Amino acid sequence: MSGRISATVLILVAAFAAAFGLWFGARMLGAPAPLKLQAAVLYPAPRALPDFHLARSDGQSLTPADWKGHWTVAFFGYTNCPDVCPTTLATFKQAWKLLEPVEAEKVRFDFISVDPTRDTPEQLARYVGFFSKDFVAATGDDENLTRLTRALGLIYSREKTDNGNYAVDHSASAVIIDPQGRQIGLFRPPFEATKIAADLKTFVSLPGAGSRPIHGRDDD
């Protein structure tokens, strides 16, 4: 039981640290982000991502190159999740339906499992396909998952349970990746489909579909 509590505490601490970093960065910047957003919380400057290699449920690879050319909302969870993951994907499904077809072409939702042992490609395809066949599902080994989640400011852990199985704890925020393949901020729970859709509409309406840095600077 203590292991589960410790893992939960770690996730809460990581979430608080990420939230404080967003707030502090905005304060240091001296001005709020120029965009009028309803749910997204933006970093003062885009963050570059590390190299990673994951396997999609359709047999293709998922690498940093696949997060370029469109806006990506990525959520990390697992298919046996009792509440957070299905609720989140259901909300994303609603937000997806609120986008016009021309807007949806510039956005995609990715579900990345941090439970690769149980979440086989077949299981991932069935699970994510229940919410939307347009959503991308992927997973990978712990080396890639840990490298990526740490870079994104997320955390996950697995703890053995009394029945000999294990439970998974994970961050509940969704990351926002711009068309240049950089993390620009987060959607944090509680998620609201109308607000997420409104922010995505704002993002895709930017000149060049995101080729212009939204903070007026480019650290690349």
From TrEMBL:
Pfam families noted in UniProt: SCO1-SenC
Signal peptide: none
Source organism, top-level taxon: Bacteria
Thioredoxin domain residues: 43-209
Record's keyword terms, sorted: Copper
Alphabetical list of InterPro entries matching this protein: SCO1/SenC, Thioredoxin-like_sf, Thioredoxin_domain
Record family assignment: Belongs to the SCO1/2 family.
Protein name: SCO family protein
